[in-house]
C-alpha cells in the first residue's frame, strides 16, 4: 500500500501535536505526577496507538496491520529498556524528581527526531544498496550478543560513562555549573552565562538516543520495509513513555531479565534479516550473486515470537529469585518510609501492623543469597531507613510504656515535618527536617546570588 503525501503530513502534524500537548498541559509546570494521572494518560497514549493500528489493519490490510503491531511491540519493549539508561543518567546528575518529566519528554522528542533520521538513512540504504539487509542483520546479531555478554558478566552498561564523551566535550567548549537553577538550561554565575546540569543531562540523553537508534531502526526494518509503518510504529511506541515510567516506576527494577528477552528478539530479527538478504542475494561472492533458496520468516510468526518472548521474560523476571529479591528491597524501602512518616493520628494499631510487615520484609532481605546482597546495599539507602525505623519504634514503645503520646521522634532523627509529611531531598530520598531546612536555605541563598548576578549581567550589557 502506497501512503500519500497528505497522509504523511497529517500523521506528522498529529504526532507533533501530541508532543506539544504533553509539554504545555503536563510538563511545562514542574510536578511529580500521581499514579492515577500516569495511569490515565498512559492508557490514553496506548489506546491511540492501538486505534491507529486498527485503522492500518482496516485500510492497509492484514499484512500491513501485522507489521505495524509487530514493530510497535518491539519498539515499545526497546523503549522501556532505554528508560533504565535514562534513569541512570538522571541519577548521575541528581535531577530533582519534579523536573524528571521534562527530561524524559525531551529524551522522547529527541529520540523521535534521531530515529526519523535513521529511518530515512535506512530506507535509502535498502533502496540503493543490495547488501543493506546483511549490514542490518549483522548489527542486530552483534547487539544481541553484546547484551547477553554484559548481562552474563553482571556488568550493565554504565550510561554515565557512555555519555561522558558528549558531556565532557560540551564542558570543555562551554562554561557550565554543577548546580541546578530550577529547570533553566542557562544561568548566570560569577558574572557570566553558563550551562546548568539540566542542559547537560539533556545533552547526555541526546547522546544515548543516537546510540539507541543504531539498534532500534535495523530491528524494525527487519519486520517491515514500509517506511510509513516504520515511522509510525516507532513514534507511537515512544509517545506516552513518560507517563508509563511514572506508572511502572516500582516495577522497572523488577524486570531483571528484560535485556535477555530483548537480546533474543534482536537475534531473531537479525537472523530473519540475514535470511531475507540471502533470499534476494546480489553479492557476487555469495553463491555467485544468485539468490538462495532459504525459508522466509512471515510477519505473523515474527509477531508471535516477539510477544511470546516478552511475556516469558516478564513472568520469569517477576517470579525468579532475583526478581523477588528486588521486590523485597522495594517493599522494605516502602514500608520503612511509611513507618517513619506515620504520626500519632494514624493510630498505634496501624503503626504496629506496618512495623510487622516491615519486619517480615527485613527477614526476607536477611535471607537473600549473597549474590543478591548488593541489591540491598545499593537500593535507596534501605539499610539506613530500616535502622531509623527500629530506633523510632523503640522510642515510641518507651512513650507508650509511660502512657504518653508516641509521635515524638528521637533527637537528631526528626524526619517528619510539622504538617505530618516526610522530609525529602530533591530526589525523594528521606532526610531529617534539619537537613531539609539547611538545603532549602542554601538553595535560597544561591537563588538570591544568581538573581543578583543576572541583574548585574543585564545592567552591564545595557550599559
From TrEMBL:
Name recorded for this polypeptide: Tellurite resistance protein TerC
Keywords: Membrane, Transmembrane, Transmembrane helix
Protein localization: Membrane
PANTHER family according to UniProt: MEMBRANE BOUND PREDICTED REDOX MODULATOR, THYLAKOID MEMBRANE PROTEIN TERC, CHLOROPLASTIC
Region (Disordered): 437-463
Biased composition (Basic and acidic residues): 446-455
Topology in membrane: Multi-pass membrane protein
NCBIfam families: R_switched_Alx
This protein's record includes keyword Membrane: yes
Domain of life: Bacteria
Name of a matching Pfam family: TerC
Transmembrane segments: 6-26, 38-59, 79-96, 103-125, 131-149, 194-214, 226-248, 255-279, 299-319
Residues of the signal peptide: none
Family: Belongs to the TerC family.
